Amino acid sequence: MTETEHFVSVSGLTKRFGDNEVLRDIDLTVDLHNVVCLIGASGSGKSTLLRCLNLLEPVDAGTIVIDGETVTNGKVDVNALRRRIGIVFQSFNLFPHMTVMQNIVLAPRKTQGLSKQEAEAKARELLERIGLLDKADEFPDRLSGGQQQRVAIVRALAMDPKLMLLDEITSALDPQLVSDVLSLVREMAESGMTMVLATHEMSFAREVADKVCFLDAGSILEEGPPAEMFSAPREPRTRAFLARVLEAGRI
Amino acid sequence: MGKFLHAFFSPLGLRRAVPQVWDGFQTNVKLMVIAEILVLVLALVVAIVRGLPGRWSLPFRGLAIAYTDFFRGTPLILVAYVIALGLPSLKLAVVSSQSLFVYGVAALTLVYTAYVTEVYRAGIESVHPSQRMAARSLGLTYAQTMTHVILPQAIRRVVPPLLNDFIGLQKDTAIITVIGLTEAIAQAGFYSNDFFSYAGYMVAAIFFVILTIPFARFTDYLIKKRERRERAQLV
Lengths: 251, 235
Prior knowledge:
heterodimer, A: about 250 residues, alpha/beta, 6-stranded mixed β-sheet, 4-stranded antiparallel β-sheet, about 40% helix, globular, B: about 240 residues, mainly alpha, 9 helices, about 80% helix, about 0% strand
């Protein structure tokens, strides 16, 4: 019964690349309209965990239940699943041969059967919201990194996802471009979007997260509400990580 | 020297050879256009088959690999002989009763499809895996990802090497003369037999060069354009 209460519930998730166990017995729950932040050093498994959630990476062991549906039993329609889960990557991954508009309407038109008019009307609405409507007919390489990343977020939002996965989406951006992207994420959080984000932006995590999970060498070492995690972490390794981050001036 | 010029470049000889060689050269152009269209389509199909995922596609991938390996390694002249002489002797329905022109197109298409398959494949593999991942993460199927995301980028990148292969194909239409098809080289040969002059061959050479120069310049232009764009991105 407890499983159905959570929107996402992961248990015993294990993922290997060859002999390397990158995720080890992960248990994680995400409630509807909540924001969960994954923090931890590079290589701790944050990205892999996100990619397992929408089955971009096949899972070796454990179960993932999303919105009441077990997605790890091999019977699920992965394409249908991914249409309900948006993911945004560190490197934007916009399609360079398509305009901003074409990038956004491609999936809604091909997978949801929306007409060109419907899809474009919706895309214009979303672009308006992020103040990039005037860029609709530009190609991605004419946009700044921050603009590209916001278009990538909008491209995912155009599918009306019930869950958004954000994989270090500000890590490839110049510092002055980060805030535009973060304010869009903040807006999404306020509008009740369920999100899991891997991030190095600790102050942002502290502000928007309902729960913070610290990953260390493929395991969730510690999790809790942000106030607790950032001011009174229990684990020595969490403390060491946060101290390093503090030193690097990222807080 | 005078003898040489007379044998190859006598103005009268050249002028007299033009209509006869032109008559044959039209066959080369037809061979080339039809074979190129077929190669463009078939090579794309073979390249896509070679890249198919999953276990069920293994036999198809194997066939595609065997095909490209075999026809890239076989001289065109040999393929032309085997098709034009071999197929009619089999006395099969349809395949044994085609014209020499059709056999010529078949030989060119078989050999060049194998080359161009590799060009397409290189293009497909040059598209960064993150593009595929982004498309699949939006819920697009494998086929939709190929059609809308991977292939448009791949094909754009391989246009210059593709045109280069087509220049090769244009020239190799001359090899088809060996099966007895009356094209430019055959006509030049007839001419030299009739008039004891090699001017016919010179005229044929000029025709081939005139046909390939626009192709070569267009390829250069596309490469330059891409270099400019890539440099602009780096700034």
